[in-house]
């Protein structure tokens, strides 16, 4: 068991991000055995869950004529328009059936505000509206974080960079993540994480 000031953050291991899902990440389900095994090593375990209303502004379907994966401008900056995914209460939004959810201390839902997306586990995409995760970890005495999950180049990377900026020591286990790699997004995410002081490990 690792020291009590370390937490495992498992990002968005949900059906829609796994093979067969609406926004499937290649081999997304291949990380499950390692993620489940890691649960036993940490005293503090947090799962995040993408949780969008059907009218979410990040869905291409809610922008007439817009193609999935195109980019539009939102008040908070550029926004990729995604296929409809992780709609609240849907099977796609549920955690993968093989993910061990019982050991989790906290499940934090993000992206539930219709007008703004939320890649990071810590902030909405305006980089100002907090999810509350930081406060939870601080009150648990956590200083170091290990991140795993989906997808490396979006929700994992945004979460890791925000955590580092908040002063946590952050490690991303790349072997327990999978990436979308949209137009070079994985290389950019890896560079951005390294620049923020995030440790990238296999």
Report on this model:
With 202 residues, this protein is of the alpha/beta class. 19% of the residues lie in helices and 23% in strands. The chain contains four helices and eight strands; from the N terminus they run βαββββαβαβαβ. It has helices at 32-38, 133-139, 152-165, 185-195, and strands spanning 6-11, 44-50, 71-74, 77-80, 106-110, 144-150, 169-178, 199-201. The strands form two sheets. The protein has a six-stranded parallel β-sheet with strand order 5-2-1-6-7-8. A two-stranded antiparallel ribbon has the order 3-4. Helix 3 packs parallel to helix 4. The chain is globular. The protein starts with 5 loop residues before the first strand and ends with a strand. The mean pLDDT is 97.
- Strand fraction equals 15-25%
Q: What characteristic shape results from the CA principal axes? A: globular
Q: Report strand order across the widest sheet.
A: 5-2-1-6-7-8
Low-confidence stretches: none
**Average pLDDT value?**
97
Structural class: alpha/beta
Number of strands: 8
Q: Helix proportion of residues, in percent? A: 10-25%
Order of helices and strands: EHEEEEHEHEHE
Q: Sheet bearing the most strands, described?
A: 6 strands, parallel
Query: Could you tell me the radius of gyration in angstroms?
Result: 16 Å
Number of contiguous helices: 4
End-to-end separation: 20 Å
